[in-house]
Amino acid sequence: MNIVLAASEAFPFCKTGGLADVVGALCQQFAGRRGNKVLLFLPHYRNITRVSSLKIVPGVYLIPIGDKIEQASLSYVNWGNVLVFFINNRHYFDRPALYRTKEGEYGDNDERFIFFNRAVLEGCKFIGFRPDIIHCHDWQTGLIPAYLKTVYKLDAFYTRTHSLFTIHNIAYQGHYPYSSFRKAGFHPVDYTPEKFEYYGGISFLKSGLVFADQINTVSPNYAKEVQKNAAMGFGLEGVLRTRSDRFCGILNGIDTDVWDPELDPVLSMGYDCMEMEKGKMAAKLTLQQQCKLVQDPDIPLVGMVSRLDYQKGLDMVVRVVERLKNQAQFVILGTGDPRLEKAYQSLARKHPGAVSYSNRLDEELAHRIYAGADLFLMPSRFEPCGLSQLISMKYGTLPVVSRVGGLVDTVRGYTGDNSDTATGFFISQLNEQGIFETVANALQVYTRKGVWQRLAKNAMRQDLSWERSAQAYLDLYSKTIS
Prior knowledge:
With 482 residues, the chain is of the alpha/beta class. It has two domains: 2-253 and 467-481, Glycogen Phosphorylase B (Rossmann fold), CATH 3.40.50.2000; 277-461, Rossmann fold (3-Layer(aba) Sandwich), CATH 3.40.50. It is built from 18 helices and 20 strands. Strands 3-4-5-2-1-8-9-13-14 form a nine-stranded mixed sheet, sandwiched between helices. The longest helix is centred in the N-terminal third of the chain and has 19 residues, at 109-127.
């Protein structure tokens, strides 16, 4: 099968969140299976990493944006069996960050990703690669399925090409004014509520949902939520219901080569589920030392690695940390809402031996938190799938999670009589008091070392790899193109 993945980020080349981890892992999974040729298209951002051996594709090709013409060129790198193509245009992509600065989103993000979407399609023609399927990810690539069904409908090069559109987070929709629809080059006849029109403008995400041959999201439970619940569907639940026969949920996995407590190079001592106590203790002491906390392996430690925004619910946790600071230690890593950053900075200053906060992206510290913490707190208001709870369980750190989205599909909550199967804790009510009570109850279970060890081993024994999920995607590809 000739497979093209198009995304705005992919690990290890560029990353702001879980989307990058998923795209990077899927590429490698698909390319490792016989008969697949896999290409990945990414924008060539300024801060692209691991591309010292870039090769240049000679020549340029032209992309119309409204009434102007922009030039695109390609460079590529062999990443295992995956060919990664970077779309070059300094005007759109040579910037300090991928999507935004501290002041807000780039004002021309509509043009940047109109350019990228068309440059992927024209890029395939430029190098002569005919895809059987183009797998598009989130709003930044939502116009590709629309182009295939409209502007490129009669293009012989794409006669046998189909599209799959994956929603990683429906809250981010790429909503722009009508002028952006015109810049994209679509015909006004298609500007109807059934197709492109969205509250007087255009939503790149809605375009993907309407025009893709198949749609999926990243967990079965989230697929149900975004169709039934207006608060979860963010205005697109009706569109999804009309396409329910072509919509499904496929659970994310994690890259177990990157996330493996036994072989993790960041840890001073590896461990597995059979002999985890010494390794967890060493990781905890190292984390406590690095974060300038009181060094004591018997003090329960709660970790959080997250964007600080409304979705993640960490605004409800500030007072919980204050109330539990004498019973547990807290390590928080993440950036986002400036008000939340200040709140956690203040907590860390007031309680230096019990609370640590780092407002940066730090992969090594993230690994140490997943390994060194006893509990991992995720009070998300919505969570399409979530990777952090999967990683924490892989490291024997028990997640405390809300009962939403993929968290329901991946965590088995402890009820007091299911220590042989439970892998974490569900928050009783999603508010400050509910989070406080659930964490406090989990800390009580922590004192029962035998039970705690069983739960941690249950978590570590799960198959959290991409194997089954990648096969589910390949099956969906085959269904889509048949």
